[in-house]
Design brief:
The structure is a single chain. The chain is of the alpha+beta class. The protein has two domains: 2-172, Beta-Lactamase (2-Layer Sandwich); 181-235, Arc Repressor Mutant, subunit A. Helix content is 50%, strand content 12%. It contains ten helices and five strands, in the order ααββααβαββααααα. It has a five-stranded antiparallel β-sheet with strand order 2-1-5-4-3, covered by helices on one side. It is elongated, with a radius of gyration of 21 Å. This is HTH luxR-type domain-containing protein. Keywords: DNA-binding, Transcription, Transcription regulation. One of its GO terms (molecular function) is DNA binding. Residues 172-237 form the HTH luxR-type domain.
Length: 240
């Protein structure tokens, strides 16, 4: 547990993504992990959302690493694709038990089996404003899998690293748009699907006033429609 406490401290003190990467590598050298990757999923509507995911990794065979990134195999990786819906870590060998695997996912599973990477652990991680992620921890071919207690420690380490990454990332992103309390209230009702007339009734404002506030919200959020406003507002943590 001392190595985990050290890692937690290093995460809190990290001032850059490189600091965080070095801390993760140093920590995993004290565990049974031989290779690891981390994927960050920006929420739809966030300022850094572009349909892609952010990936950091170490320890994987170079040829496999390049193939995975060049061919964007994470798009067919059933563990990565389904990570946001996980409620617990999964061993890689459990992937065959997933229901409704696509042909692309089955092809990916066969490809991975030919790489002889050995057993691994897939850990879902969760952050602020739906900034979730996924950690893949490989133990290497022929090596023993971790105990239940070790899995819990690895899960805690992954979650801490993800939160530290989110904190650094959000510092680097452009500052969030400032909405007034009334504009946030209007956005709240937009998220819940109310029409302008319903919002006017809920807020006891005139319909013209509601429409003015909605235009201001669109302008500040840099969107042109209600759905985009709702998604961006939720991604920025302005509404639940």
């Amino acid at each position: 547990m001392e190595s985990l406490r050290t890692y937690f401290r290093d995460c809190r003190n990290a001032e850059s993504f490189e600091d965080l990467r070095v801390a993760a590598v140093c920590y995993h050298k004290t565990t049974s992990v031989k290779m690891a990757s981390y994927m960050h999923f920006p929420p739809v509507g966030a300022r850094d959302f572009n349909g892609e995911i952010r990936i950091a990794e170490f320890g994987y065979p170079e040829e496999w690493r390049q193939t995975y990134l060049r061919k964007k195999l994470y798009q067919n990786d059933p563990l990565a694709r389904r990570a946001p819906s996980f409620i617990r870590p999964y061993f890689w060998s459990e992937v065959g038990q997933f229901s409704n695997l696509t042909d692309e996912e089955r092809s990916y599973i066969n490809m991975v089996s030919q790489e002889h990477l050995g057993e691994g652990l897939s850990v879902p991680v969760f952050g602020p404003a739906q900034r979730n992620g996924y950690c893949a921890l490989g133990f290497g071919r022929g090596n023993p899998v971790p105990s239940d207690d070790e899995v819990l420690e690895l899960q805690a380490a992954c979650q801490m690293g993800h939160l530290a990454y989110c904190e650094l990332l959000l510092k680097d992103l452009p500052k969030g748009t400032n909405l007034s309390s009334r504009e946030r209230e209007i956005l709240y009702w937009i998220v819940r699907g109310q029409t302008n007339a319903q919002i006017a009734e809920s807020t006891r404002l005139s319909r013209n006033t509601v429409e003015t506030y909605i235009r201001r919200c669109f302008q500040k959020l840099n969107v042109n429609d209600r759905v985009s406003a709702a998604l961006r507002g939720m991604a920025l943590g302005m509404v639940d």
